[in-house]
Amino acid sequence: MIGSGGVGDAAARIAVERDFFEALVVADYDLGRAEATVAAASARRPGESRLVAAYVDASDPESVAALAREHRATHVFNAVDPRFVMPIFTGARAAGAHYLDMAMSLSKRHPERPYELTGVMLGQEQFDQAAQWEQDGLLALVGIGVEPGLSDVFARYAADHLFSEIDELGTRDGANLVVRDEEGNEIFAPGFSIWTVIEECLNPPLIWEEGAGWRTTPPFSEPEFFDFPEGIGPVECVNVEHEEVVLMPRWVKAKKVTFKYGLGEQMIGILRTLHDLGLDSTSKVNVKGVQVSPRDVVAACLPDPATIGPRMTGKTCAGLWVTGTGRDGEPRATYLYHVVDNEWTMREYGAQCVVWQTAINPIVALELLATGVWSGAGVLGPEAFDAVPFLDLLAAPKPHGYASSWGMEDRDPAATSATSPSSDHPTDDAAA
Questions:
Q1: I want to staple 383 with a disulfide (CB 3.0 to 4.6 A). Which of 42, 250, 251, 394 is the partner?
Q2: Which of 191-195, 278-282, 389-393, 408-412 bottoms out in mean pLDDT, i.e. has the lowest?
Q3: Helix (H) / strand (E) containing 52
Q4: CA angle, residues 358, 359, 361, in degrees to nearest 5
């Protein structure tokens, strides 16, 4: 596993409870941070000795390959931000190892019409190498976090078990999280890497439509209020660039695919200000003789997402809003979702809920790969695999499963997605 930041640290704490692996190498450019993750995770299980720490330069494919060869790694799990996708992806293949990530290679906007036409799309650099991975008999399982990841698993499940025809696959993400300082005042502190948040939210969002393919829109377009379950309530969501819109149409038949994120008025305002000031740029500028990236400066000035858990309250929800025709031939609108409470993740894992919710899904996928339930070669998204084993393992009680329940709400298909659910509880055919 490359990266022992918030998500990587949470992933190690989740993985150590499982028996499917012989060894887990936690690698980071900061060896001390990797060692701290190994110590914290190993302490969760008496006598644990399978985890070891190592140094790696995630920007160097050969550093990645050398580490994988040294430890005879079967899989390389990318747990760092997406600017390092391609060197890790390349290094894993060079070492003959399978690969997993939670975010795909970066996009490049269309040079003339960025808010209408796609340029280089998310993940395109990886899909361009799919034939070589397949020829080598290696699997790159891409986009297997929570969004993308669990949302894509939901898409496969909806297509196979709930709908005969899908009008829209709409990922909808929202939360009621609050972070406070030592005096109890609410502060701005994103629960995820601000570098990644800036990348996602200021790039032109993607929309896919049957017959037209992919197109882009301006950032924060098409706002809508979506009613999230388990007490979160209505949150304004806007279009954001995300991998689901790239992945889902490749394996799941639908008329439209969208991604909307509940950013909130404060986050949107801050992101717009950063853009207006040029502080979202990754190009280095000269500051009194020192070359620095403005976006890196912004990230350095904000609290580390891995450290804000004790000061955070609330819940986060990831899910997929699906509309179309049910198996019975009647109109259907269903929200499949996964809600995590920060108080619970902090108490049980010492990890804040946003990074924990992201981290659990690649560990579940690794277990399915290790046990042979999932298998394949090439560059594949989560939609390419049977969803039922994943959802069953995620929700099943410990020690068999991960005891992280997911839910499903049927809503009025004649109303908008902002309509309150018809029930506060999952429907009878939900897994949990």
A1: 251
A2: 191-195
A3: strand 51-55
A4: 80
What is the spatial distance between Cα 334 and Cα 408, in angstroms, rounded to a whole number? Answer: 7
Kindly report, residue by residue over 290-304, the tens digit of the pLDDT.
998 998 898 888 777
Average pLDDT, the chain: 92
Residue partners of 168: CB distance under 8 A and separation at least 6: 254, 255, 256, 257, 258, 321, 322, 323, 324
Claim: this prediction has a pTM higher than 0.70:
yes
Tell me which DSSP letter residue 302 carries: S
Give me the amino acid identity at 227. Answer: D
Task: Give CA–CA dist 374/389, Å, rounded.
Answer: 9
pLDDT band, residue 308 (cuts 50/70/90): confident
* Number of C-beta neighbours around residue 306 at 10 A: 19
Residue linked to tokens 């993940």: 123
Residue in this structure with the two tokens 């019975």, named with its chain if needed: 328
The pLDDT value given to residue 279? 87
pLDDT band at 418 (very low <50, low <70, confident <90, very high): low
Task: Give the residue from 404, 416, 414 showing the smallest Cα distance to 227.
Answer: 416
H-state helical runs in 147-293: 150-157, 194-202, 244-251, 265-276
Complete DSSP assignment for 364-418: HHHHHHHTTSS---EEE-GGGS-HHHHHHHHHSPTTTS-----EEEEE-TTS-TT
What's the Cα-to-Cα distance from 34 to each of 5, 6, 28, 55, 352, rounded to whole Å? Answer: 8, 11, 6, 8, 18
* CA neighbor of 104 nearest in space, from 57, 147, 56, 151: 147
Domain 150-356+397-411: homologous superfamily in CATH: Dihydrodipicolinate Reductase; domain 2 (3.30.360.10)
> What is the Cα–Cα distance from 261 to 277, expressed in whole angstroms?
23
pLDDT at 191: 65
The answer, yes or no, to whether residue 201 has pLDDT greater than 60, is: yes
Residue 173 · residue 337 · CB < 8 Å:
no
Question: Sorting pLDDT into bands at 50, 70 and 90, what band is 310?
Answer: confident
Single-letter code of the amino acid located at 145: G
| Tokens standing for residue 211 | 């017959």
Architecture of domain 6-141: 3-Layer(aba) Sandwich (3.40)
Q: Please list the residue range(s) of the chain that carry CATH number 3.40.50.720.
A: 6-141
d(CA 341, CA 353): 6
* pLDDT number for residue 66: 98
